[in-house]
Design goal:
The chain has a domain of about 190 residues: Pyruvate Kinase, Chain: A, domain 1 (3-Layer(aba) Sandwich), CATH 3.40.1380.10. It contains seven helices and five strands, in the order ααβαβαβαββαα. By secondary structure, the chain is an alpha/beta fold.
Length: about 290
């Protein structure tokens, strides 16, 4: 049995580790709440965007746009949203398993160092890598989004898809591959948009619309805004998933540290009791002799 000094040292070490994980849990909880609030803050904008798209249903059937044209897929374009740091449970591992399921030629754009490291290790093509702060602003997200759109329009990639952790609740984050481009049609894009942003009711304006300038110019701006807002919302959701997963992982680590301290304390008491008993026996044997 280990001596009492070693056990005391280990108890102290585990308690210190538990204090660190407890602090990391509280920080992650704060960041998760902030990320959720950021996603909710964009709800009025999403509502207005949905109402505009709904009002255009059936009025732009003769308009063509590069985002709406399907083409032969030679190279898939995937935006991988992972984390910069670890200690977030199986969040990144689940995303990477999604990547291993892709068997067709694919070019990646990454947000997060962990994803870049995985793709480099597995010899997959990375077009560009970006980093995001915890307080993701649209000005930050615009860089990878515009890079992806440019690569799509220039023919470097034939799709835009996102691999990210979908935030369902604090305890569950589901890895998803979400296709963004090409859009099959505005109606399907609208339905998906309403679902993703959890919009309950959308006003449908049936009045006749006159476009000034041309409708093609209007649809260019609208689809560009629509796509950027969708990808930005996905990045916010991935951030919320990251902080939530880290909070849960640190809480589990803190609980395990407490349990280990209890076990070590019991072991220490047994060792101390055994040492006292041995001393008593030695004293009693000395007296009898």
């Amino acid at each position: 049995m280990a001596n009492t000094r070693d056990i005391r040292r280990r108890i102290k070490s585990v308690k210190n580790t538990g204090q660190i994980t407890k602090a990391m849990q509280l920080v992650a909880a704060s960041k998760m709440k902030r990320a959720q609030n950021s996603a909710l803050a964009g709800r009025p904008y999403a509502q207005l965007m949905a109402e505009i798209i709904s009002s255009l249903d059936g009025k732009l059937d003769d308009i063509t746009h590069p985002f709406l044209i399907e083409r032969k897929v030679e190279n898939r374009g995937v935006l991988l949203i992972s984390t910069d740091k670890g200690l977030c449970g199986g969040l990144n591992g689940n995303l990477f398993r999604k990547i291993t399921e892709i068997k067709t030629p694919t070019k990646f754009v990454t947000i997060g160092r962990k994803g870049t490291q995985f793709l480099t290790r597995t010899d997959r093509e990375v077009l560009a890598e970006f980093s995001m702060s915890d307080k993701v602003r649209f000005s930050e997200a615009r860089l990878p989004i515009e890079y992806l759109i440019k690569a799509y329009l220039e023919g470097q990639i034939d799709t835009i898809e996102i691999i990210y952790s979908h935030f369902e609740n604090t305890l569950k984050q589901e890895p998803l591959i979400r296709p963004m481009l090409p859009l099959k049609n505005l109606k399907e894009a609208f339905d998906e948009y309403v679902k993703e942003n959890d919009l309950k009711s959308v006003t449908h304006d049936t009045r006749e619309i006159q476009f000034e300038p041309a409708a093609s110019n209007f649809i260019d701006t609208l689809l560009d805004l629509f796509l950027k807002n969708e990808i930005y919302h996905t990045i916010l959701e991935a951030k919320a998933s990251e902080h939530s997963a880290r909070m849960v992982a640190m809480k589990t680590a803190t609980d395990n540290a407490k349990s280990l301290v209890d076990d070590l304390s019991l072991q220490y008491n047994k060792a101390r009791q055994a040492a006292i008993t041995q001393e008593i026996l030695e004293i009693a044997a000395g007296q009898s002799s």
